[in-house]
TrEMBL record:
This is Cytochrome P450. InterPro entries: Cyt_P450 (IPR001128), Cyt_P450_CS (IPR017972), Cyt_P450_E_grp-I (IPR002401), Cyt_P450_sf (IPR036396), Cytochrome_P450_monoxygenase (IPR050121). Heme binds at residue 445. PROSITE patterns: CYTOCHROME_P450. Its cofactor is heme. One of its GO terms (molecular function) is monooxygenase activity. Signal peptide: none annotated. Belongs to the cytochrome P450 family. It comes from Lophiostoma macrostomum CBS 122681. Keywords: Heme, Iron, Metal-binding, Monooxygenase, Oxidoreductase.
Length: 517
C-alpha cells in the first residue's frame, strides 16, 4: 500500500496535475461522493481552488474549460465512454444506448431510439403529457379557487408524479397512475438511491468482477435491483400486449422493431430491460428537475414571472373556464407548435434554470484511447485515463458567464443562443458553448427535444391556469436545501434551487400553494 501511494503521488503520469492528495491516492473519496449527493458541489469547490484541471481520483481528471468540452465529447474526440459505465452493464447484464462503450453499437442503438422521436411521434407523446397534465390540474383545482389558495404541495413531488405517469405512457403505453393512486407511488421512491448506487459501483470494478457490490453497498444495491425488477416486469407485460397493439406508437415498439427488421441485431430481454430502465429515469427525473427549478427561480423573481405570464397570455389569449374544472380549453390551446415556440422568454427561463441547476450536474467520464489526447491545446493526457467536464461547475464559471450565479434569462435572448431574435450585444460575455445540460456531441441526450416539448407545454399550462406562491420558510430538503439560510456545506445561497447529484438528480420542494387565475 505504501509503494502504491508513493507511486501515485510521485511517478504516476498524472502526478503533476493539481488536486487534493487524498484523491490521488485512492478512489475511496470518489466513490463516497457518488453516494452523498454533493459531488457536483465538490467539483466546483475544487476547480475554484486548483484551477481548470483537477485530479479527482488516481486515474481521472476533471477539466472545467470551454475547449475541453469539444476535445473530450466531440464527434472526433479520441475518447470512448469510460469503463465506469461497466457498472451499469454489469448490473443490467447487458449494454444500453447510454452505457455501451463500443461506438458502432452505440450508434446503432441510438439511431433506433432517434427514429422513435421524430416530430410526428413527438406529437403523439404530447397527447400523453396532456392527459396526465389534466389529472394534475384537476387534482390541484379540487381545493383551489379564484379567491382561495390551495393546500400546500411539494412541487418536486407533484411534477415527478406527473412525469412518471407520462413516461409510462411514452415507453410502455401504460400509465402507472402514481398521481391518483397512493398504492402505486412506491415505484418512484427508490430511483435516486438506485442511480447513485450503480454510479458508485461503476468505480468499484474489482468488486463488481467478484460480485461483492452488495457487500459494500447493500442498501443502494437493493434499490438497484428493485429498479431492474420494475423495468423487467413492465417489459414482460408490454410484450404480452404486443399482438393486440398493432403498430405500436411507444418507445418500446421501436426497440422491438429492431429485432423484426434486423434479426442479427435482435434485442434479448436483458437488452430491453437495460434500455427501458434508463428511459424511466432519464425521462422522469431529469425533466422533473428542469421544470421544478424553472418554477422555483420564477417564484424567486416575481418581475420575471410577470413578464413570462404576459408572454403566455398574449400568445394564448383564450381564458380558462373558471367554473368547469374538466374544461378542455387549456389542452386545446396550449400545445407545441409555432405559437408556443414564439414564447422566447419562456424558453430562456428554461435554459437559465438548466444552466444554474442542471439535471445531471456532475461529470460524465470518457476514457482516452490509444495515442492520447491533447485537451485545450495545452494538457496532454495519456491513454487509459478518464477525463470529463463537470457540468454544474462549468455552467457557473465566472470566466464564461457574467454574474454566473444570478438567474438572468435575458442572457439567452442575445445572439448565439437557440432563442436568439436580436443582434449580439457588444457587452455580451456569456459563452453559450459551455451550456451542456444534455451533455455534448454524439452521446448527448437523445430525448432532448421530447424534454423541451414537455417542459414548455407543462410550464405554459401551469402559468396560464394558476397563480403560485411559495410557502413562507419553504425549504427544499430539511435545513440544507432551498429557501433557507445556512444551507449546509456548499449550499449557502438561499436563492439557488439545490439538487443532489445522484448521477441524475434528486431534490425536494419548494412547497407552494396554487390559486386559479
Amino acid at each position: 500500500i505504501l509503494l502504491i501511494t508513493l507511486y501515485r503521488l510521485t511517478l504516476h503520469p498524472l502526478a503533476d496535475y493539481p488536486g487534493p492528495g487524498y484523491t490521488a491516492i485512492s478512489e475511496a473519496y470518489n466513490i463516497f461522493s457518488c453516494l452523498n449527493g454533493e459531488r457536483h458541489l465538490q467539483f466546483k469547490i475544487w476547480h475554484d481552488r486548483y484551477g481548470p484541471v483537477v485530479r479527482y481520483a488516481p486515474n481521472r481528471l476533471s477539466f472545467c474549460d470551454e475547449k475541453a468540452i469539444s476535445d473530450i465529447y466531440g464527434v472526433r474526440a479520441n475518447t470512448q465512454k469510460s469503463q465506469m459505465y461497466g457498472g451499469f452493464n454489469h448490473v443490467f447484464n447487458a449494454t444500453s444506448s447510454l452505457t455501451c462503450t463500443d461506438r458502432k453499437e452505440h450508434t446503432f442503438k441510438r439511431r433506433a431510439i432517434n427514429n422513435a422521436l421524430q416530430p410526428a411521434q413527438l406529437k403523439i407523446f404530447e397527447k400523453h403529457l396532456t392527459k396526465n397534465m389534466d389529472i394534475l390540474t384537476n387534482d390541484v383545482l379540487k381545493d383551489a379557487s379564484s379567491s382561495d389558495w390551495s393546500s400546500p404541495h411539494d412541487l418536486s413531488t407533484l411534477i415527478h408524479r406527473l412525469l412518471t405517469d407520462m413516461i409510462g405512457d411514452v415507453v410502455f403505453s401504460k400509465s402507472w397512475n402514481v398521481q391518483i393512486s397512493p398504492t402505486k407511488r412506491w415505484i418512484e421512491e427508490f430511483f435516486p438511491l438506485a442511480t447513485s448506487g450503480v454510479h458508485a459501483a461503476g468505480h468499484m470494478l474489482l468488486a463488481l468482477k467478484l460480485n461483492l457490490q452488495s457487500v459494500f453497498l447493500p442498501r443502494t444495491m437493493a434499490s438497484v435491483y428493485q429498479w431492474l425488477a420494475v423495468a423487467r416486469s413492465q417489459c414482460e407485460e408490454r410484450i404480452q400486449r404486443e399482438e393486440s397493439m398493432g403498430d405500436g406508437k411507444d418507445l418500446f415498439s421501436s426497440l422491438l422493431r429492431i429485432s423484426k427488421d434486423i434479426p442479427a441485431k435482435s434485442l434479448g430481454m436483458n437488452d430491453l430491460v437495460a434500455e427501458t430502465a434508463i428511459m424511466i429515469v432519464a425521462g422522469a427525473d431529469t425533466t422533473t428537475t428542469a421544470l421544478t427549478a424553472t418554477l422555483f427561480y420564477l417564484l424567486m423573481h416575481p418581475s420575471i414571472l410577470h413578464l413570462v405570464r404576459q408572454e403566455i397570455d398574449a400568445t394564448f389569449p383564450s381564458p380558462i373556464d373558471s367554473h368547469d374544472t374538466t374544461s378542455n380549453l387549456s389542452r386545446t390551446t396550449i400545445e407545441n407548435g409555432a405559437s408556443l415556440s414564439s414564447c422566447k422568454l419562456l424558453r430562456a427561463c428554461i435554459d437559465e434554470a438548466l444552466r444554474l441547476s442542471p439535471p445531471g450536474p456532475g461529470l460524465f467520464p470518457r476514457e482516452v484511447l490509444a495515442g492520447g489526447l491533447l485537451v485545450a491545446d495545452k494538457w496532454y493526457v495519456p491513454a487509459g485515463v478518464d477525463v470529463g467536464v463537470p457540468i454544474y461547475a462549468v455552467q457557473r464559471d465566472a470566466r464564461y458567464w457574467r454574474e454566473a450565479h444570478t438567474f438572468d434569462p435575458f442572457r439567452w435572448l442575445l445572439s448565439g443562443s437557440p432563442t436568439s431574435s436580436s443582434p449580439a450585444s457588444e457587452s455580451e460575455t456569456d459563452h453559450h458553448n459551455t451550456f451542456m445540460p444534455f451533455n455534448f456531441g454524439r452521446t448527448s441526450c437523445v430525448g432532448k427535444h421530447l424534454a423541451y416539448n414537455a417542459m414548455s407545454v407543462t410550464l405554459a399550462r401551469i402559468l396560464k391556469t394558476f397563480d403560485l406562491e411559495m410557502e413562507s420558510g419553504s425549504q427544499v430538503s430539511g435545513s440544507k436545501f432551498g429557501k433557507s439560510k445556512g444551507g449546509g456545506w456548499g449550499r449557502g445561497n438561499k436563492e439557488e434551487f439545490q439538487v443532489r447529484d445522484v448521477f441524475s438528480s434528486a431534490h425536494q420542494g419548494p412547497v407552494v400553494r396554487f390559486r386559479r387565475r
